[in-house]
Amino acid sequence: MRPDLGTKPRAPHPETGELLPVVTIVTDNGGPFRSFRFESFIAAHPELHHVRTRVKTPGQNGSRERGFGTLKYERLYLDEIDDAIVLAERAEDYRIEYNELRPHEAISWNRPKEVHLGLADPTTPTFKTKEILPTT
């Protein structure tokens, strides 16, 4: 965990007392993340730790910002979209491609879904290498 994001001790499960892993959620300062409803949700889940980035510092959440930029330029800005349903469909198509089809350099050319499901190790490539057969 980055030291500038703060830490939170592991929380005990309310019924079993088992220590729960802490998941840090990093967001910007948008309205949805400052709402009472969101704060209540975070408070009701001791395994969650919410950290807001500093105002006007999108670089603190750079991978998310980069993801939105890629979505815009690879899908949404290709042509004019006049229909909200078409917009949602394009965004969903991109999400599926990004997480299930496209390999990512940061996780050793694996796909995020495979890493998330434990089917691939983010430090070991699983793609097939080209086999070079002997010539004699």
Secondary-structure class: alpha+beta
The largest beta-sheet arranges its strands as 1-2
Helix percent band:
25-40%
Radius of gyration, in Å, reads 20 Å
Detail the poorly predicted runs: 1-5
Task: Tell me the major beta sheet.
Answer: 2 strands, antiparallel
Shape: extended
- Count the E strands: 4
What amount of the residues lies in strands?
5-15%
Separation, N- and C-terminal Cα atoms: 53 Å
Mean pLDDT: 87
**Topology order in helix (H) and strand (E) letters:** EEEHHEHHH
Describe the structure.
The chain is α+β, with helices and mostly antiparallel strands and 136 residues long. The chain has two domains: 1-56, no CATH class; 61-117, no CATH class. 38% of the residues lie in helices and 10% in strands. The protein contains five helices and four strands. The protein has helices at 31-34, 36-44, 62-76, 84-101, 112-116, and strands at residues 11-12, 19-20, 23-27, 48-52. The strands form two sheets. The protein has a two-stranded antiparallel ribbon with strand order 1-2. β1 (11-12) and β2 (19-20) form a beta hairpin. The longest helix is centred in the C-terminal third of the chain and has 18 residues, at 84-101. The N and C termini lie far apart (53 Å). One of its GO terms (biological process) is DNA integration.
Which features characterize this protein?
RNaseH-like_sf, two-stranded parallel sheet, two-stranded antiparallel ribbon, extended, Integrase_cat-core, 5 helices, 136 residues, alpha+beta
